[in-house]
Amino acid sequence: MAGVHQSTMKFLNITTEISSAIGTTVKGPKLYTLCVFTWTPPVELSIIKALKIYIFPLMFLIGFSANMMSVAILKRSGLKKPTNVLLLGMVIADSMVLLQGINFAELLSCLGPNYEYPKYCGWQYGVLVNYFLLACDILTYFFVEYGIRVNTTIPILITLERFLAVYMPMTFKKIVTTKSAMISVIAAYVVWLPWPVFYLSMFRYFIQLEKIMLFAIGFQRDNQLEIYTLLNYNVVPFFSTWMPIFFIGIGCILISIKVKVTLSRRKQMTSKQDSATWSARTTRTLLTTCLFLFMSTIISFFLDYFNNSIDDGYYYFEEECATLNYMLNASSNFFVYIATNRNFAKIFKDIICRKKRRQQIY
């Protein structure tokens, strides 16, 4: 699921059929929703199964473990530093995105041992189990969509923080504090909170053939479709795709120019003359982190673009490729930290060595 919103595109075309099948909104002949996997070519379906059953859970284990190590490194480095507060906010959002790798409820709805599969998608495991899987799916959808959106906002804050540090160091000291960084991170989470709530409010669960539970978009009024279309395909992509691409891209270019000029001047100065108040090491770490998100956002944009015109048989294959892109980005920060920041790498080594010493003692 490359951002929960992508999984709804095909459902928009079948909502009327679902409603007709249930008989709640339209009276007429019963029409049932066929699973999209029915038209997926065998090779692509095999790749999808490998991703969802093996690769994504493995990526969750590696990525989540790496993110927990990032938390330990940032805590050891000091959470009173504004940059560490911003990075911690990103790590939390990354961890939420990685939950898609263990969304067993979604997996069981389309690739589970269903006796009607592959003709129909949905949960077919009895009433209690179906409702349990529904609850798990809703929670996963919420946290993944929430994490994806927040994860595109915090890099903008990081870029702004570095821009102030290298271009306006005096202003930077006054306004960039631990408190302001914490308020900014909390604001990023608060601003995006209404979106996953609204998004999930558009979903309904449906019962097919009196035994198959399906969780999909279902509009009860025409204005809901109009509002959803406006937000999901215009407003939200603007703030979570175009804005990050513009601000992070332009910001990184400007910051890199300033850093290069400043470092060349440092070589010609004595230590007493060097008045730079920012760390090149920290700047390198933050910019690399933002650039990973920048590239991931561009890839997501192109995948979304092709998703609108792709054939039904290849829809889920493209969707899982987008999910892979999100999960790779959500797993990358730890490796960026230890590769670009010697202080973080030293803290990581100290943590590992301490654990080894404890094991030897016991």
Automatic annotation (TrEMBL):
Keywords: Membrane, Receptor, Transmembrane, Transmembrane helix. GO terms for molecular function: G protein-coupled receptor activity. It is found in: Membrane. The keyword Transmembrane helix applies. PROSITE patterns: G_PROTEIN_RECEP_F1_2 (PS50262). InterPro entries: GPCR-Ligand_Int (IPR052954), GPCR_Rhodpsn (IPR000276), GPCR_Rhodpsn_7TM (IPR017452). The chain crosses the membrane at residues 53-74, 86-105, 125-144, 181-207, 242-263, 284-303, 323-340. Residues 66-337 form the G-protein coupled receptors family 1 profile domain. GO terms for cellular component: membrane. SUPFAM superfamilies: Family A G protein-coupled receptor-like (SSF81321). The keyword Nucleus does not apply. This is G-protein coupled receptor.
